[in-house]
Specification:
acyltransferase; alpha/beta; 355 residues; Udp-n-acetylmuramoylalanyl-d-glutamate--2,6- Diaminopimelate Ligase, Chain: A, domain 1; UDP N-Acetylglucosamine Acyltransferase, domain 1; lipid metabolism; Hexapep_transf_CS; ten-stranded parallel beta sheet; 4 helices; lipid biosynthesis; lipid a biosynthesis; eleven-stranded mixed beta sheet
């Protein structure tokens, strides 16, 4: 791949220093003064690149790799050619994530769009009744509404609309084209381009004549600290209660979170998930891509839901579910195996008749 000017190499970190920062161990102390500047997949790594491996499937790619260093578990260290330094870690994936943030800090948040990345752009509109702490950056064409409050170190990207009385904490990034209304946002929150936060939820009552009557939505969206929300994700405000996204939760692109949903701390929700209104999701829940979650149900702490599942009822804490309708993973896998056997038997029967 050609040189990436979007995320240029770091000026360099010694492997000895990197090992200390990661809580890793250099397999050979003589490699302590080698320097890494970039992260790369094993297959195309060059001098100065840091890579990681998690399984023996990488053996063939390692043989031709020109990486400076590899992060891996001690059980895989023997696979690494002698010319490549080895950083030993019990959690190499986690260590690599930390190293990547050190080598490419600018890639950890949506980037600055304009050359002037300080202060309030003259091409932005900030209502006189809004209150911005020192160090807030507002890029061109952004609109900050009446009574909005934004904390120190937060950056508002181009074309962002912050509604009246919205509160945003410190060191947040609200990227291009996002809109926030009726929302309270904590510290260190990242909201990616095009996200829609705080619009009214989907609620209607049967009309006296054919048709539906809109139900008023007067709740809020509360986003706690260290949350990340992906591009074009929508989070509706509550009807009369609040929609809540718990601390440390990460939400992928194009996710729909309905009104009154409460998501716990440190959850992971992958692209294409739809969560219907008034669902309660516990802490540490992982939901695979394109899954649909029924409304007014409870998903317990630590639950894992496979991709493309349809969850129609409560799930107890710690369970692993999959399928449509979602059921315990052992039942889902058994059903899949039985269907495969039946399909194979039908094909064999059909083949014998053809003969």
């Amino acid at each position: 791949m050609e040189h990436n000017w979007f995320f240029p190499p770091h000026e360099g970190i010694r492997l000895g220093d990197l090992a200390v920062a990661l809580g890793a161990e250099l397999a050979d102390a003589a490699h302590a003064d080698r320097v890494v500047r970039n992260v790369s997949p094993v297959s195309r790594a060059k001098e100065g690149d840091l890579c990681y491996i998690l399984s023996r499937k990488m053996r063939a790619e390692l043989e031709t790799s020109e990486a400076t260093a590899i992060l891996c578990d001690a059980a895989l260290a023997s696979l690494v050619p002698s010319h490549i330094a080895v950083l030993l870690s019990k959690r190499p994936h986690t260590a690599f994530a930390i190293a990547g943030a050190m080598l490419h800090p600018a890639a950890m948040r949506p980037g600055v769009t304009t050359s002037d990345s300080t202060g309030i752009s003259p091409a932005a509109f900030v209502d006189p009744a809004a209150r911005l702490e020192a160090g807030v950056v507002v890029e061109p064409m952004a609109v900050i509404g009446k009574g909005a409050e934004i904390g120190e170190g937060t950056r508002i990207g181009p074309g962002v609309i912050i509604g009246a009385d919205v509160r945003i904490g410190r060191n947040c990034t609200i990227a291009a084209g996002a809109t926030l209304q009726c929302a309270l946002v904590g510290n260190e929150v990242i909201i990616h381009p095009g996200a829609r936060i705080g619009q009214d939820g989907f609620g209607y009552a049967p009309g006296l004549k054919p048709g539906m009557i809109k139900i008023v939505q007067i709740g809020r969206v509360i986003i706690q600290d260290h949350v990340e929300i992906g591009s074009n994700t929508t989070i509706d405000r509550g009807t009369m209660d609040d929609t809540v996204i718990g601390e440390g939760t990460k939400i992928d692109n194009q996710v729909q979170v309905g009104h009154n949903v409460r998501i716990g701390r440190h959850c992971g929700i992958v692209s294409g998930v739809g969560i219907a209104g008034s669902t309660r999701i516990g802490d540490g829940v992982m939901i695979g891509g394109a899954s649909g979650i029924n409304g007014h149900i409870t998903i317990g702490d630590g639950v894992q839901i496979a991709a493309m599942s349809g969850v129609v009822g409560d799930i107890p804490p710690g369970e692993r579910y999959g399928g449509i309708p979602a059921r315990p993973m052992r039942d889902f896998l058994r059903d899949v195996a039985e269907m495969a056997l039946r399909s194979s038997a039908r094909d064999k029967k059909k083949g014998s008749k053809d003969d």
